[in-house]
Amino acid sequence: MSDTEQAYTSYEPGAAVAAGSIPLCVPELRGNEWRYVKECLDTGWVSSVGPFVEQLEKSVAGYVGAAHGVATSTGTAALHVALLVAGVKPDDEVLVSDLTFIAPANAIRYANAWPILIDAEPVYWQMDVGRAIEFLETQCKWTDGKLVNKVTGRRVSAIVPVHILGHPVDLDPLIEVANKYGLAIIEDATESLGAEYRGRKTGNLAHIGCFSFNGNKIITTGGGGMIVTNDPASAAKAKYLSTQAKDDPVEYVHKETGFNYRLSNVQAALGCAQMELLDEFIAIKRSIAAEYAKAFAHLPGVTMMSEASWARSIFWLNTVLVDEEEYGEDSRALMKRLARRGIQARPLWEPLHKSQALQGVQSVGGEVADDINRRALSLPSSVGMTPEQVQEVIGAVCEPGRVTR
Ligand SMILES: *Cc1c(COP(=O)(O)O)cnc(C)c1O
Q1: What is residue 268's predicted lDDT score, i.e. its pLDDT?
Q2: pTM for this entry
């Protein structure tokens, strides 16, 4: 499979487009990738230890201003380990965004804990922090030094805010309440490497943060992830759990069940080359977003995602809301029409409260997530898009002859 095909596999078949067309979001390998990977092959450092793993850990941690980085095999693995490091125990409950890719909720289930799904807010589509706080303050009670869900009787131990589409969650009020009740915050910053919240980088806003280097993310190692934290004990624990929990690496003594969640040196080599390009990639993503925003500003029924005054988004996937009445076509019809022109667009994820995989899970609201899901469409956002391709997408969305009803 080519990289391009690989990046498609997770998308709706309805949105698939042929080669030679404009994909949604594919990797951009234009720096030292070949050189660093060749170095791995030349030196024999191809497996789970090697200089690039440590270099990538330092580079990502340093970039977001965190003291420590721990590389992992995927972003989902990073989330799983981060939850365990943060002290999430079986049967605990963990607040998580309703409108997100399912990975963080899956990670909560891997830890044998239960997600509580918090609706999105309507402006930036992120976790509705006000609703999360209201849930903690009114639906939970403080007993025996812990916060307990009044309905289920389970302990609430952590919050996983997901910075979706490259824009940060409004985190400060949530951090304040989390501190009040001793809850851990595990940032899912997998879609937002480089984004800023009030001048600080996402992933390093609270206790522990997670990144992904999957093929469709802003930088890629093919597959990979990273935990960042300022706490040396948490970093050591994350390394321990993600490397099979070896208590004595010579005698192979294990006191706990660990995981093989290591990133290989070859993957890390790719990551080191990609990190050198990150700022340039962010600038490109932002300029693609600006082009779309300018073009759609006066197009009735199409609203481009926006950026809060307190945020610097990386516009990972440029997404619009389509109003069927005003635009004359709904988001799915637009998707299909774009596909016929060789342009790959994709809806956002089914809100988690609708997911069969999470049946019976408690949710707070969900109407906003449903409404966004119905209207949203992500447009091509690859760093390697040419200006002509951006104009082609704009032209197709603005096409005057579109089907009206
Ligand atoms: C990509 C992503 C992840 C992690 O994905 P991996 O493929 O496991 O690296 C986690 N959460 C969200 C919201 C994501 O978009």
Answers
A1: 98
A2: 0.94
Count CB atoms within 10 A of the CB of residue 244. 16
Two structure tokens written together for 150: 């009044």
73 touches ligand 1 (CB under 6 Å): no
Amino acid at 281: F
Ligand 1, atom 4: closest residue by C-alpha: 75
Reply yes or no on whether the pLDDT at 403 is more than 60.
no
For ligand 1, whether the C-beta of 303 sits within 6 Å is: no
- pLDDT tens per residue across span 257-269: 999 999 999 999 9
For residue 16, give the nearest of 389, 339, 393 by alpha carbon.
Answer: 339
| Spatial distance between the Cα atoms of 300 and 124, rounded to a whole number of angstroms | 19
Q: Whose CA is nearest to atom 7 of ligand 1?
A: 214
How high is the pLDDT of residue 49?
87
Residue nearest to atom 5 of ligand 1 (CA): 75
Ligand 1 atom nearest the C-alpha of 162 is 13
| Other Cβ atoms within 10 Å of 166 Cβ, number | 30
Give yes or no for residue 1 having a pLDDT over 60. Answer: no
H or E element at residue 77:
helix 75-85
At 374-384, the pLDDT tens digits run 999 999 999 99
CA angle 220, 119, 135 (to 5 degrees): 120
